[in-house]
Write a structure and sequence with these properties.
mainly alpha, 4 helices, 112 residues
């Protein structure tokens, strides 16, 4: 029987494939694109996702080892500076790994 942590990790991994699958085909030129009149570019949204995952690991799960400067939240708007695709991919990968590590340590009772 799977633990709650295992089930939640599987659900999260599956949901996150919608992001990771797109990262495989994303090109640097796509980072400045926006959807219609939306204020935020693809690059900003990618950085924001990494910021949020790190903040979640630090603030929700209490991992004080995580150091995060949530630049997208600090700036409050898209300054169009998130244009380095490899840097964004690395940031998202690190954020995912750090959140994954702390979630894997949770016991079933922690989810109550």
């Amino acid at each position: 029987m799977k633990t709650k942590t295992q089930i939640l990790l599987e659900l999260w991994f599956e949901a996150r494939t919608r992001l990771t699958d797109q990262l495989e085909v994303l090109e640097a030129k796509d980072l400045t694109r926006r959807l219609g009149d939306a204020p935020n570019s693809v690059g900003f949204l990618l950085r924001h996702m990494g910021d949020v995952e790190l903040l979640f690991a630090k603030n929700v799960f209490g991992d004080d080892r995580i150091k995060v400067t949530a630049k997208t939240l600090i700036e409050g708007e898209d300054t169009r500076r998130w244009t380095d695709l490899e840097e964004l991919k690395d940031y998202l990968s690190r954020a995912f790994f750090q959140l994954k590590q702390i979630v894997e340590k949770q016991k079933d009772s922690d989810w109550e």
